Amino acid sequence: MQDEDRFEQGMQVRRSVLGDAHVDRTVKNLTSLNADFQDFITRYAWGDIWSRPGLERHTRSLITIAMLIALNREAELKMHLHAAFNNGATREELKELIMHSALYCGLPAANATLHLAQQVFDERDAAGL
Question: Within 13 Å of residue 6, how many CA atoms lie on the same side as its CB?
């Protein structure tokens, strides 16, 4: 895939997963410091990895959330909890993923994620989603 095609594919997948509002905010906030990083994310994270045919986006979302729980990356985790719904994840699946993470990532990580997931669910409820 040509580099420009990879960027376009990445932007399409990024918008599909994260939503236009999130991506538009990111584009609006580009600076000389973060522009190269955002280009890198679009081309490689979204244009290459998230575009690969081997896993469905639903599965990729759940895997990503599990890894972010393990790494204790709250901001990214919250973003991907929201995004998981765009990929067909349900609240019940997210609950089970968090329960499962308690065994492999530890109780504090799972507990923190339960609180974060509740915030996401409350935000979605308030928005009528």
Answer: 14
SS3 at position 6: helix
To which residue do tokens 């997948």 refer? Answer: 13
CB 123 within 8 A of CB 85: no
CA distance 105 to 86: 25
pLDDT in tens, 80-116: 999 999 999 999 999 999 999 999 999 999 999 999 9
> What is the DSSP code string of 75-101?
HHHHHHHHHHHHTT--HHHHHHHHHHH
| Distance separating alpha carbons of residues 122 and 7, to the nearest angstrom | 34
Q: What is the pTM of this model?
A: 0.92
Q: Is the separation of the CB atoms in 72 and 109 below 8 Å?
A: yes
CA nearest neighbour of 104 among 67, 55, 79, 53: 67
Report the alpha-carbon distance of residue 68 to residue 37 in Å, rounded. 19
